[in-house]
């Protein structure tokens, strides 16, 4: 168990770094828009001082743009904060719908640059599970990352959550090229197996239905 | 003659505001959120500089840079990077980018780089023209 945790920790740090870098890129984009908007307000003020009439609608539009970017930045930082806190408790009760929403939010930029959309069908009720949140986040990301290579022409991965007798099931579908792709990596590989073991989870690849199914226990206990 | 610039970035608001600021400074600016459209536009028109975001959906900035330089080696490309990785910037310079600048960019610094790009492009175009004239003279035996 110790060596599994050690391996997962090393891979986990790399995963944490990758997500953090992606989040920082989004923040930079938001800052750029605020920077240019503030700069344009300065430009318009200087022009007004030289006698050019100030377009108030333009000023309102720019201040609205800055406000939107502040809200966007705040949202990104809140998600980043929640992601960072996933490592606080090794075991925790989480609502799986809310959890997967966060996973998709913090990895949105990484899926967007691949031109892939990931949709989550939200459950009408909460789906509480006791698990290891950080390792689950890492494993779900690894499935999405693999899925981006196997996704069909729609470039869309759909995720559904179902409660079953054997645990809680997450179904990743839209993976039309599961068989056809020449894998950049074997799936599941050693890091995936480590995470599955640490979560007490099982993985099924169904190339008939173009799906990957991940089943985790509702209540994981060592 | 005003400096002609194409800005390529997937953030529409960024393009709108930066484009306007550069227009106010006398530049002739076109913008696009799409890497594929950028390639099409660069086929149809010449620019003194192309300001290109490194991380975009569809196609990343390095791919766009390679495509542009393959068909128009004289085109000057300045990369905008939010990633802050020097490695990517160095790779881009190796592939023919004129320069790179980290977001959020200082407009005065960006304008300086665009002016340098314009000057460099003029030199390359003049050299190409001289070469063509030389070849004609040689081929005609004059």
Question: In terms of topology, how is this protein built?
Answer:
The complex is a heterodimer of chains A (222) and B (142).
Chain A (H helix, E strand, L loop, with lengths): L1 H48 L6 H29 L7 E4 H11 L1 H5 L4 E4 L7 E4 L1 H18 L5 E9 L2 E7 L16 H10 L2 E5 L4 E6 L6
Parallel strand pairs in A: 2-4
Antiparallel strand pairs in A: 1-3, 4-5, 5-7, 6-7
Helix pairs in contact in A: 1-2, 1-6, 2-3, 5-6
Chain B lengths: L3 E5 L3 H13 L3 E5 L2 H10 L4 E5 L7 H11 L5 E5 L4 H9 L4 E4 L4 H34 L2
Parallel strand pairs in B: 1-2, 1-3, 3-4, 4-5
Task: Give structural notes.
The complex is a heterodimer of chains A (about 220) and B (about 140). Chain A has about 220 residues and is of the alpha+beta class. Chain A is about 55% helix and about 20% strand. Chain A folds into two domains: about 1-85, Orthogonal Bundle (Helix Hairpins); about 90-215, Heat Shock Protein 90. Chain A has helices at about 1-50, 55-85, 95-105, 110, 135-150, 190-200, and strands spanning about 90-95, 115-120, 130, 155-165, 165-175, 200-205, 210-215. In chain A, strands 2-4-5-7-6 form a five-stranded mixed beta sheet. Chain A has six helices and seven strands. The longest helix of chain A has about 50 residues, at about 1-50. In chain A, α1 (about 1-50) runs antiparallel to α2 (about 55-85), α1 (about 1-50) crosses α6 (about 190-200) and α5 packs across α6. In chain B, α2 (about 35-45) packs parallel to α3. Chain B has a single domain (about 5-140), classed as 3-Layer(aba) Sandwich (Rossmann fold), CATH 3.40.50.2300. With about 140 residues, chain B is an alpha/beta fold. Chain B contains five helices and five strands. The mean pLDDT of chain B is about 90. Chain B has a five-stranded parallel beta sheet with strand order 2-1-3-4-5, with helices on both faces.
């Amino acid at each position: 168990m110790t060596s599994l945790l050690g391996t997962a920790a090393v891979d986990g740090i790399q995963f944490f770094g990758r997500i953090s870098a992606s989040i920082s890129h989004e923040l930079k984009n938001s800052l750029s828009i605020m920077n240019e908007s503030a700069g344009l307000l300065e430009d318009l003020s200087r022009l007004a001082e030289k006698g050019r009439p100030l377009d108030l609608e333009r000023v309102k539009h720019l201040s609205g743009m800055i406000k939107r970017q502040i809200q966007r930045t705040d949202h990104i930082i809140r998600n980043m904060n929640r992601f960072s806190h996933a490592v606080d408790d090794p075991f925790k009760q989480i609502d799986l719908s809310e959890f997967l929403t966060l996973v998709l939010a913090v990895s949105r930029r990484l899926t967007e640059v691949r031109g892939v959309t990931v949709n989550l069908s939200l459950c009408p009720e909460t789906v509480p599970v006791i698990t290891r949140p950080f390792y689950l986040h890492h494993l779900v990301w690894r499935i999405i990352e693999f899925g981006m290579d196997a996704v069909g022409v729609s470039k869309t991965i759909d995720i559904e959550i179902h409660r079953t007798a054997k645990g809680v099931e997450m179904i990743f579908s839209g993976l039309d090229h599961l068989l056809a792709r020449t894998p950049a990596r074997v799936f599941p590989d050693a890091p995936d197996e480590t995470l599955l073991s640490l979560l007490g989870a099982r993985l099924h690849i169904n190339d008939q239905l173009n799906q990957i199914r991940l089943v985790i226990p509702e209540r994981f206990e060592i | 003659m005003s400096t002609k610039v194409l800005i390529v970035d997937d953030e529409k608001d960024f393009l709108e505001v930066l484009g306007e600021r550069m227009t106010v400074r006398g530049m002739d600016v076109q913008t696009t959120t799409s890497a594929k459209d950028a390639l099409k536009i660069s086929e149809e028109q010449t620019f003194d500089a192309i300001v290109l975001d490194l991380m975009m959906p569809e196609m990343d900035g390095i791919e766009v840079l390679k495509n542009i330089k393959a068909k128009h080696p004289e085109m000057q490309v300045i990369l905008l990077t939010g990633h802050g990785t020097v490695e990517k910037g160095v790779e881009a310079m190796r592939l023919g980018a004129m320069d790179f600048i980290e977001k959020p960019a200082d407009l005065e610094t960006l304008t300086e780089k665009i002016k340098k790009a314009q000057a460099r492009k003029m030199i390359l175009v003049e050299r190409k023209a001289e070469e063509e004239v030389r070849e004609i003279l040689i081929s005609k035996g004059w």
